[in-house]
Amino acid sequence: MTNREILIAGAGLAGPALAYWLHRHGFHPTVVERAPALRSGGYKVDVRGSAIEVLKRMGVYESARALDTGMRTVTYVRRDGRPLAVLDANLLMGRRGDDIEIMRTDLTRILYDATAADVEYVFGDAIASMTDTPDGVEVTFEKGAPRRFALVVGADGLHSATRRLALGETPLTHLGAYMSICTVPNRLRIDREEYMYFEPGRLAFAYSTGPDAPAKVGLAFASPELSYDRRDVAAQKRLIRTAFAGLGWEVPQLLDAVDAADDLYFDSISQVELPRWSAGRVALIGDAAYCPSPAAGQGTSLALVGAYVLADALATSAEPFAAYEAATRPYVEKNLAFGRKMAKDMVPGGRLQIAVRNYGMRTLKFHPRKERVIERVLRPLHEAANAITI
Fold first, then answer.
1. What is the C-alpha separation between 251 and 298, in angstroms, rounded?
2. Are residues 164 and 179 in the same domain?
3. Which of 189, 193, 186 is nearest to 207 (CA)?
4. If you average pLDDT over residues 229-243, what whole number do you get?
5. C-alpha angle 101/65/265, rounded to 5°?
6. Are 214 and 146 in a shared domain?
7. Sign of the C-alpha dihedral computed for residues 188, 194, 199 and 204 taken in this order
8. Does the pLDDT of residue 2 top 70, yes or no?
9. Is residue 188 situated within a structural domain?
10. Tell me: the pLDDT tens digits for 197-221?
11. In a domain, 138, yes or no
């Protein structure tokens, strides 16, 4: 490949990770991001299995580990707020060995800082059109002047505009629920703990990395696909309030805090399932290609591994997109399957299901082999996280 200029759409996690490896392989990446700066807010994310090795090879693992959330416990609460069960966070969430949990915005900053000196970042702009030619991809931008690139990679998330331009409309696989998360004042003085409250078809949770740090509040509810304007935050807040009206615990106060929040994330719990991840000179990585849904807890790991494998394929293979997909798809399919399974459990459907779960959580601490019980339940997660060798 004589033209080494590659355009990456999206400066979240997958985009900067890919830019890092492309630069290491002698390419000249440009990252374009619609937002005017790195996005803040977001939620805590896990990095597991093969993705840990990617961070280590990038030389940023220790920086990421230093910003681990340090979550200690997960507490299931009753409607009146009394604790139902208090469990070790690492054990319950399946973290082991070198696995880490980090705030998404912290990991984004680490990846950006690792690339900013060597990679061109263009904030406040986006791809308007792409034309595949024998000499490369002619790209027009919403604001900037047109440019030609050897390749374009879409790393622009679940609702990828690059995917739409390259492959046309590709419907998401709706997994039966919606989820929101935002930053609110930590009036509960939560200290490296997560609280979870379940009602039929609804889950409310809150966590914080320290008593003086802000809290994150999440609200998930079962629902068929909804029609709403993704840019209308006020309408999204109304949907949330309607779904959680009349619930106990701290939900009324949390809803008031959500109303005042300025960083609301609201979206369906959905997957991206594509028969191919490229068309012509355009490829997709991360959530744009294979979002496993937040229920999987594996989106960040898929993005990091996908970036590593794609960059390596571009540097070493005569058919790089085919090589990237052949190497990555079995890993992706395992994680998509795990995401579908977890989505069914994330928002329990009825009181019997909640009662069975609560009983299991309440009695787990008395089980003489509780570590082995949890390990058996989470075995599919660990298998999915390590389903590729890099």
1. 28
2. no
3. 193
4. 96
5. 35
6. no
7. positive
8. no
9. yes
10. 999 999 999 999 999 999 999 999 9
11. yes
Q: How many CB atoms lie within 10 A of CB 134?
A: 5
Average pLDDT along the chain: 94
Q: What is the CATH classification number for the domain harbouring 229?
A: 3.30.9.30
Query: 101 burial class (0-12, 13-18, 19+ CB within 10 angstroms)?
Result: buried
pLDDT, tens digit, 9 for 90 and up, residues 243-294: 999 999 999 999 999 999 999 999 999 999 999 999 999 999 999 999 999 9
Same domain, 25 and 152: yes
* Domain count along the chain: 2
Task: Show the domain range for 197.
Answer: 173-266
Structure tokens at 341: 């399974």
- Shortest CA distance to 10 belongs to which of 308, 331, 307? 307
Residues 278 and 304 in one domain: yes
Q: Which 3 state secondary structure label does DSSP give 186?
A: coil
Q: What residue type is 23 in one-letter code?
A: H
Yes or no: say if 204 and 219 are a contact pair by the CB < 8 Å rule. Answer: yes
Q: Which residue reads 């702009």 in tokens?
A: 125
Token pair belonging to 35: 């937002």
Please give the single-letter amino acid code of residue 107. L
Q: 80-99 pLDDT, tens per residue?
A: 999 999 988 988 888 889 99
Q: Do the beta carbons of residue 286 and residue 12 sit within 8 Å?
A: yes
Which residues make beta-bridge pairs with 211? none
Per-residue pLDDT tens digits for 330-361 = 999 999 999 999 998 888 778 888 888 777 77
What is the distance between the alpha carbons of residues 290 and 297, in angstroms, rounded to a whole number? 13
